[in-house]
Amino acid sequence: MAESSPESLPAAVAESLALRTILLPRDTNGSGIVFGGVILSQIDLAGAAIARHYACHRFVTVAMKEVKFIAPVYVGDVVSYFGRVLKVGNTSITVQIRVEAERFSDCTQTVEVTSAEVVYVAVDQSARPIPVRPH
């Protein structure tokens, strides 16, 4: 299967909400700012949900491209993870995740937090790569 570009992917891979959560004190440092690792973990979960929606396979994460945090996330913020499929290869799928935070202190304020490209590989029960086939 040749790699596909966003233009050749079906309309079903348009950006969609993959995950929404409220972050709690256990997710933060002493200043009430959410740890970057918590956001990275949730980016991975959101990307896996998008990949699985595209092709009903088990996926493993193989790469997360550079992630730059451009705004902090505070305890109580509602954090939304939006995703879309960027590219589909023979056994891999690349998902773009965009992260926004709705401020607890002012629910009319939404800020962009970060974005990331995550690459997943479809695997069988023995963790061997298998072809990605959309459903």
Brief sketch in words of this structure:
By secondary structure, the protein is mainly beta. The protein has one helix at 36-54; strands at 16-22, 58-64, 78-88, 92-102, 110-123.
Label this structure with key terms.
mainly beta; 135 residues; five-stranded antiparallel β-sheet; 1 helix; single chain; Thiol Ester Dehydrase, Chain A
Number of domains: 1
What is the C-level CATH assignment? Alpha Beta
Number of beta strands: 5
**Uncertain runs with pLDDT below 50, 5 residues or more?**
none
Helical run tally:
1
Q: What kind of sheet is the major sheet?
A: 5 strands, antiparallel
Overall average pLDDT: 91
What is the percent of helical residues? 10-25%
Question: Beta-strand level of the residues, as a percent range?
Answer: 35-45%
Gyration radius, to the nearest Å? Answer: 16 Å
Side-by-side strand order of the widest sheet:
1-3-4-5-2
Approximate shape: elongated
Report on the structure:
The chain has one domain (6-123): Hotdog Thioesterase (Thiol Ester Dehydrase, Chain A). Helices cover 14% and strands 37% of the residues. The two termini are 15 Å apart. It is elongated and about 45 Å long. The mean pLDDT is 91. The protein contains 1 helix and 5 strands, in the order βαββββ. It has 135 residues and is mainly beta.
